[in-house]
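question for whoever is on the cluster today: can someone run the full assembly for these? two chains, 741 residues total. i dont have access anymore since they changed the login thing
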Amino acid sequence: MKYCIKNGKIIDPAGGYVGVGDILIDNGIIAAIDGEISADDAEIISAEGKMVFPGLIDLHTHLREPGREDEETIATGTKAALKGGFTAVACMANTQPVADNGVVISFILEKARKEAYTKVYPLGAITKGLKGEELAEMGDMVASGAYGFSDDGNTLMNASVLRLAIEYASMFDRPLMLHQEDVNLAGNGVMHEGYWSTVLGLPGIPDIAEAAIIARDLTIAEFTGFPVHCCHVSTKKGVELIRVAKARGVRVTAEATPHHLTLTDAMIETFDTVYRVSPPLRSEEDVEALRQGVQDGTIDVIATDHAPHSLEEKHREFSLAPNGMIGLETALAVIWTEMVCTGILTPEQLVERMSVNPARILKVAGGRLRPGDPADVVIFNPDKQWTVRSEELVSKSKNSPFIGKKLNGRVESVWVDGMLKYCNENFT
Amino acid sequence: MIQLPKDILGLKELSAEQIQHILDTAVVCKDIFKRDLKKIPTLRGKTVVTLFFEPSTRTRTSFEIAGKWMSADVVNLTVSSSSVAKGESFVDTGRTLEAMGVDVIIIRHSLAGTPKLLADTVSAHVINAGDGAHEHPTQGLLDLYTIREKMGRIAGLKVAIVGDILHSRVAKSNIYGLLKMGAEVTVVGPPTLMPRGIEQLGVRVEHSLDAVLNQVDVVNILRIQLERQQRGYFPTKKEYSKLFGVNMERLSKAGNDVLIMHPGPANLGVEIAEEVSVHPQSVITEQVTNGVAVRMALLYLLTGGGSKDEILH
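^ ran it for u. tokens below:
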């Protein structure tokens, strides 16, 4: 199928095209991109007044399959991703069983091939069973198709294991994505330690729990000379450490989530478990520092940490509810509303943080619309206002902190490898 | 006409007028202690459940007596923490009680926020009898009542709260209540047991009890949970007692009419010496008595009672 997207404002910083123009999609790839393209045999799609992005790539998604198909599946999670403008997601290893071997990676890829709406890049565990003790079979997982490694919500508390993991993973040239929170400093904490944890009487997790581990990890990464990626940075101290390390030449990349960029610990005032997440929502000062970090490039990537949980699991005592919130369907509009409309990010910077840089870190094609690139393309209507409604979410779980919120900007059409998979609220 | 909210979850959300109204109502309730026959029909036909997920004899008995003296049917439910571990749903327990036609649920739980979750689930009135390190509003009210009764006022008084502020729901409810009623509050304890941002509530923070004792009108001594020592918050019981225990020597350095309070149960010889606990300046037993009066007042006001003059008739 051949498509010609006409007169959209193309935002393709990696390809060097920012401006109104046409894109020709043919045979799964970008065939041409130019001011005006005439293609009589192509289906013409007008993008007049809209924007055209390379497909977004989420570096941090939980698809829950295998193991918790009641909360999300590869099919429903990628459907949510597609609706949110993502054409690829990297899925975390904390499945049941854990993706710490080639068999589970193969299973995910096989399932994705049959059922996924987007590309799926499985991440394997760094250590067996996510236990932080023995290295998992990284070579076997790479051979089966793993795109990177992460122990997800678990910190590698043993610094020696981390050093060995960085060194060993360097053979495969795949990103090592680190959760960074000192388990002893975090203790039994369930929210950010500060004024609000004191008011609510909930055990707190201090910002130093994150900063101390980031400082340690950066020191070890610098020593090895190999790169590391910091997952969902949430603190001002963390941003500052990464900024300084980058200036010193340490090979580090970092991500922040839409929720950490827009919500604070004050939201927990009513003990609403939808706001329970790891790392916890932080103070206003932290949010401000994160936004600056995203703006100046200290934070390379905005990733969702889409973490589906059933209603029953979330509807309980705050301290016993699981961490996590969904984000794939709202990420783009939340960032557009809170960071682009407010002048913190340009549309080009948004595309860099949500498409170009994730592709670079995962070392995958995408994030660019040059002729020959895979035709992963999004048409985004920046003027469309909408309200997030639980019943309209296609994710199997509804634990979104943005339900009821009015957002600007909506995804209208999405192509994955040249196939029009989503168009005007319809999945095709 | 001063209205109370549907639920009493904390003193943070009550106004000074509402607190005053509860205390005034409790004055009338306390009259019943002087009677030979301690039973009035005010809450006849109402059902009150105490739902305790944490062991407690004092608070539960106090609520039970308060309900029974007012002729409510009081049912005590102790839910072992093991049933929580077994996965028994908290909200389901709430709905079950609701379906049995309960009017008031009094809940104690080790996890902060559970009374709020219950209150959002049921239409019955919920009274928080202590949740984690969040609030213990009836303790706060009975402490306010005791101070007002003994000192004749609350406004302008200087109150020290001494001990484990970090884990104390009693401290928090006292802080909110005292500040709303116009007192000045100093919290005293080791830095390891001071929650972050506590000064933003409007209190002064001190780490030397001796520096504070002779400057205050009231000393409220918190129970020190002995397992905190094992978690490393302080080195030994002995050292805690030396630095923060109120003994006769310390008492003698305090003002002559300083009021000594403790929410109980006390670790005698640790945070408070036995001699101090039974000293004429100690009002610990009156606190217990006032607890019943304050809880009667709350039950009365929540279940639709209006004027305090109607309570005894």
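summary bc i know u wont read the tokens: The first strand of chain B starts at residue 47 and ends at 52. The mean pLDDT of chain B is 93.
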